[in-house]
Each structure stands twice: as structure tokens, then as C-alpha cells.
Amino acid sequence: MPTPKPTSLSIRSYQVGFGDSFLLTFHYPKVAGKPKAVHILVDCGSTAMPAAATHSLDDIAQQIATDCGGKLDAVIATHRHADHINGFGTNAAGDNSGDILAKLKPALVVQPWTEDPALAPDAIKPTGKLKALAAHTRGLQAMHACAALAADEAARLGSALPERTRKQLAFLGETNLANLSAVKNLMTMGKKNEYLSYGAKTGLTKLLPGVKIHVLGPPTPADYSEIEKQRSKDKDEFWHLLGATAQNPQTARAPFDKKFAAKTRPAHARWFAQRVTAAHIQQRLEIVRALDDALNNTSLILLFEVGGKKFLFPGDAQIENWNYALKDAPEAAANCKLLAATDFYKVGHHGSLNATPKTLWKLFAKKGAPTKKTTLTTVVSTMSGKHGSTSANTEVPRATLVAELEKNSVFFTTQRIKKPPLFEKRDFPL
């Protein structure tokens, strides 16, 4: 008997503000006279809903439950950031979205290799041995403690900090919190858990007959040591403006700003106190930025190949993650050929400047006028004003990247979703 193949794929992009949540529904021919569909949820998280939004992650989870008919076949959590997984737990807003999603009883939960509870804190590759659970948990707690301190300091210092600094500290602290309820829920909600790295095989293929799944990231440090760090600038790969720099000299403060004058204490003492605080906060920012970058580079990169079409979901994968797949892996040439035929691209990291390398964008052979039927479809889940800075050319979504996406793809952003239904649905015949 021939292997059944999907006849179409529906992709729902949910309005979660600054975060990601996508439901992939693979439609198969009728089995025993009934339509068959396989539902795969890719991420569910948010660190901020749009200002005018009246819905919560509970509402998103309930909508997902409705859209999948009360049963998920698999959940993919691309990486641990709150804006990708806090919908699987109970968050500060009191949402119970995690309970709603757990009741959908997925057969499989897929995560990057770094989430495997069998790993020791210093592991550099996956392991199948269920050892060092306590040590791994302690390692995660220590890593996220820095993020918790950053978030606390942003709240404690408040108006004493420059507005831009306070927002950066709060955002990076909050998105890198441990999300322990979500992590625990993901470990228990499925019948089986998989922890994948570059080139791994996945049980998704059994759930999706007729579909090939290519795991293109993340590599492990044993594969590629560069994955352990991230560079801040790359003129050939990142979407900077020509001649842009990481800092805007016009916005820099003079060493002796007028606001440091004081009537009740010596001016030099107040200046010193302010500068010590500034140095301390800058160090804290650099620590949580490093944590943020490290977690982004653990993102799964999955390419679904079905019916002659290819659908790319890279989470928040950054340049080092991509460099391995595109340049340094033994299969790099084959990967490039495979990715060239991409039909659908979930834009990485909410449209940031460093998550869609120009090498990758140049590869896409189906770029072109949005009016053509064969043109690449691109979708970004994002919210302006939440992350980065326009003065430093690091705003998310990055203006130069968005302009290119609008010009040379069928582009959609979840920012266009202003009212219920809480999603935008795209159907792809296969």
C-alpha cells in the first residue's frame, strides 16, 4: 500500500505580540471516510501583547485547541526564551495557557538538545544516558538567576536609569527568566520527548507520512565551537544601514551632565555614585545579552519538505547557528541547495538584524515580485518598539530587512492582526 501524502498544509500565525506561535495542519486524504489532519504546534509564547489587545495567552491557547480539534500531534519548542515557551506554563499575568495546551496531549514534544534533562551543565553534545538531572537543573537555575536579578534591578532603579537602558534591562531579564512551569510542562505533556541537534533524525516523520524533516540546527559545541559565542556586527551578513555603528555618538551623554548637580551633597560624590551605578548596570546588561545570545543559538532550525515544497522554521537562530549549516557543516553545499528552493520562511528572531543572514537570503531562489504565484512567502511574528533601538539601527523588526521582505516576497506580519480571529491562516496546496 503506498504511503499517504498530505494534500495541503495550513499555517496559522497567532497574534501573540512579541513572541511566536504557529500551528501547522497537514491535511491528508480521507481515512475510513473521514478527513485526516496532523497538527503540529511550533512555539507558544509572548513577552508583550499589543497595546490595544484585549486577549491573553489563555485566549491564544483556547483558539489553538479549537483549531486543532482538541488534539495536538506534536509540539515543537524551538528554544527556552519566554517569548517562545511561556505559553506552555503559568506566567506572571496569571494565564493558564499551559494547562489548556497540556490537555491537547501531544504524542511528541521536540526541543533542542540543550534541554535534555540528562545533560550535565558543562555538556558539549547530546547524551542518551539519564544522568546528572540534578546537576543540569542547578546549572539552569544559576544561568537564569542572572536574568532574574536584571529584571529586579530594572524595576528597583526605575526612573534612576535612562529610559532606553531600563527597557533593555527589563526586556532581556524577563525574556530570559527560567520559565520553570513551562519547562516542566514541556517535559511531561507529551508521550515522548525528543532533544535534537544538527542532522538528527526525528519522530516527526512517523507522525507526518510523506513529509521529510531536515534538522539544520543547532549544532553542538563538539561540532562547532563558534556556537558558544555571538558577534555583534557583521557588515556582510547583518541588516545594518551602510556606515551604521553600534552606538550613536549624538545620543552620548557628556561626562559631567547638569543633572548630577546636587545641593545637599558634593557634586563630585553624586557624579561618582551615578557613574558606579551606570557601570554596574552596563555589566548586568552585557551578562544578560550574553545569555540572550547563547539561548538564541540553541534554536532548532527545521525544514519541512513535502509535495515539492519546503517550509522553513528557524526559531531565533543567530548567525553562528546558520554559519554551521550554510558554510562549515560537511553537508553545507547540500544544505544550501536544499534551502534555495524554500517556499515559506518563518522570519527568524521576530525580524532582527542578525537572524536572517544575507547569505541565507541570497540563497532563496524564489524571491521576486509579490504578485507572482511562485514567489517565496515570508511571515514574521513581531511587535515594534519592544526590542532594540532605531538610533543604533538594532530595532526589531529591522527596517532594512522588512523593506527587502516586502519588495521580494509575499510578506505578512502579525502586526496586521488587529482583532479576532486571533490568527492569520495561509493554505498551501501540495
Can you give me a brief rundown of this structure?
By secondary structure, this protein is an alpha/beta fold. The protein contains 12 helices and 13 strands.
What does this structure look like?
The protein has 430 residues and is α/β, with parallel strands linked by helices. It has one domain: 4-Layer Sandwich (Metallo-beta-lactamase, Chain A). Helix content is 32%, strand content 18%. It contains 12 helices and 13 strands. The strands form 2 sheets. It has a 7-stranded mixed beta sheet with strand order 6-5-4-3-2-1-13. The protein has a 6-stranded mixed beta sheet with strand order 7-8-9-10-11-12, covered by helices on one side. The longest helix has 30 residues, at 267-296. The chain is globular and about 55 Å long.
**Roughly how many Å is the radius of gyration?**
22 Å
Query: For the record, what CATH class applies?
Result: Alpha Beta
Could you give the distance between the termini? 20 Å
CATH architecture: 4-Layer Sandwich
**CATH fold-level label:** Metallo-beta-lactamase, Chain A
- Tell me the major beta sheet: 7 strands, mixed
**Residue ranges: pLDDT <50 for 5 or more in a row?**
129-140, 169-177, 240-258
Apparent shape: globular
List keywords for this structure.
430 residues, alpha/beta, Metallo-beta-lactamase, Chain A, seven-stranded mixed sheet, six-stranded mixed sheet, 12 helices, globular
